[in-house]
Design a protein that fits this description.
The protein is mainly β and about 450 residues long. The protein contains 4 helices and 17 strands. The chain folds into 2 domains: about 200 residues, Porin, CATH 2.40.160; about 120 residues, Rossmann fold, CATH 3.40.50. The longest helix has 28 residues. About 15% of the residues are buried.
């Protein structure tokens, strides 16, 4: 399959240059993801902890889900800095969802300078029903415990005290806890409705649906029906209003089984009906297998994965396609390789994904995706996002002419050979290195 354009030669030249660039960028991401974590934080031993000075350790908190004002107010026996390169202790906090809908936080305490020989990690699980006040209080408790080994090296350690609060009753081991819901978590969302009304234009958009998830050590099950409907109407002075009605309803599901620390297998199924893509009904079933280079328990910090899927697709179209089809049965396969690493110096998530249909190997798609955030030096950080697709598998494109109204109202899919989007941003912060002051006014 190939979609012809008037500017085919020029487009092919652009695609060729972009493709070579993205392949090189992906190779760089793989190399960076496997090598850079070996030296996560620059070690500057020129400034050592001076116990005789009584100086509290300088701490940098690297966290996306923290109340920094609360931390600085409650944990006041250390000094906080805004730049990790000036810190004695880099506290790197990551989190992931747990089977019960809560979150498990990992606190990595990375010693620098005179504390370079003290590294350790603590974890804390917080239930889905915990309030924000309970969550931040629990996180502060872990932070206090993790900072003790560093404070113990200074004279201010004499001001520390240790206490233990015994809970009422005895808590049974986690393995023997009885769960009435059998680890199922449900979420219903409705009323995601937006509406805009002007004298000559009306817009309406609504989304609602349902989630059901079950996560255990051996299984990960996800069920999600969803419904989206939008309506647009534009008044014309001497003609009837131009209207657009778009719907996108479907059902996504998967069941993934853990095979070992590095292997897992899954079954993916989905249904879609979408009028702006000429899809009356489409069913897909895709079994797949995944290999993780690193153990899955390390996935919150670093991961290199390969995923292979093969599947069956049954499609019915609203209109006859450019290939003369009103319905068809398809078999396809897909392979995806991705690298992700989250370290104190930044985050990288990049990968390549390719797929094709067996009835016509020219009906294929290749995608490159990348999300990079790197702390270059001091307060200077670089953010790069890139998505590039080589597209030759638009099997549902309707035959016939496409009107200007259909294009403007996004009621009809347009043929294309490629899709490219991206963004680049730099940020630089400078000034006082200390971040101890708390001021919550306004």
């Amino acid at each position: 399959m190939h979609v012809d354009f008037d500017s085919t030669a020029r487009v092919s030249s652009v695609m060729s240059r972009c493709w070579r660039f993205f392949v090189l960028l992906f190779i760089f991401g793989v190399a960076g993801g496997t090598a850079l974590h070996a030296h996560d934080v620059p070690r500057d031993t020129s400034r050592t902890a001076d116990a005789s000075s009584g100086q509290a350790p300088l701490v940098y908190i690297d966290c996306d889900r923290c109340d920094f004002n609360y931390i600085r107010s409650e944990i006041n026996f250390v000094n906080y800095v805004r730049d990790p390169e000036q810190a004695d202790v880099h506290v790197f906090i990551t989190d992931e969802r747990t089977g019960g809908g809560g979150r498990e936080y990992a606190f990595s305490f990375i010693g620098q300078r005179g504390y370079a020989d003290v590294d350790h990690t603590l974890t804390q699980s917080i239930g889905r029903n915990a309030t924000w006040s309970e969550t931040r209080s629990s996180m502060n408790q872990v932070l206090k415990m993790g900072l003790v080994p560093y404070v113990m090296r200074t004279p201010i350690a004499s001001g520390l005290s240790i206490s233990y609060e015994e809970e009422d009753g005895e808590v049974a081991p986690q393995q023997s806890i009885s769960d009435a819901w059998d680890y199922w978590v449900f979420e219903v969302y409705a009323g995601r409705v937006s509406m805009g009304l002007e004298s000559n234009q009306t817009e309406f958009d609504s989304r609602w649906g349902f989630f059901a998830d079950r996560v255990t050590e051996n299984w990960k099950i996800h069920l999600r029906p969803y419904f989206n409907f939008s309506y647009d109407a534009i008044e014309q002075a001497n003609d009837d209003p131009v209207t657009s009605r778009r719907h996108r309803h479907g059902f996504n599901s998967h069941a993934i089984m853990s095979l070992s620390d590095h292997w897992s297998a899954g079954l993916f199924g989905n249904y879609l009906t979408r009028n702006d893509r000429n899809i009356d009904h489409r069913f897909r079933v895709n079994p797949g297998i995944e290999y993780s280079v690193f153990p899955y328990e390390d996935a919150t910090r670093k991961a290199i994965t390969l995923v292979y899927r093969v599947g069956y697709t049954r499609a019915d179209y609203d209109e006859q396609t450019i290939f003369g089809r009103n319905e068809e049965t398809l078999i396809n396969q897909a392979l995806e390789a991705s690298v992700s690493t989250r370290q104190p110096w930044g985050d990288i998530y990049t990968g390549l994904a390719g797929s094709h249909y067996f009835h016509d190997f020219s009906a294929r798609r290749l995608e490159f995706f990348s999300r990079v955030s790197v702390r270059i030096a001091g307060g200077l950080s670089l953010f790069v996002r890139t998505d590039f697709e080589m597209i030759q598998d638009q099997l549902s494109l309707p035959a016939g002419e496409t009107s200007l109204e259909d294009v403007l109202l996004q009621q009809r899919e347009l043929a294309t050979d490629f899709s490219l989007s991206g963004s680049v941003a730099l940020s630089y912060t400078f000034g006082s290195e200390f971040a101890n002051i708390v001021n919550t006014r306004f």
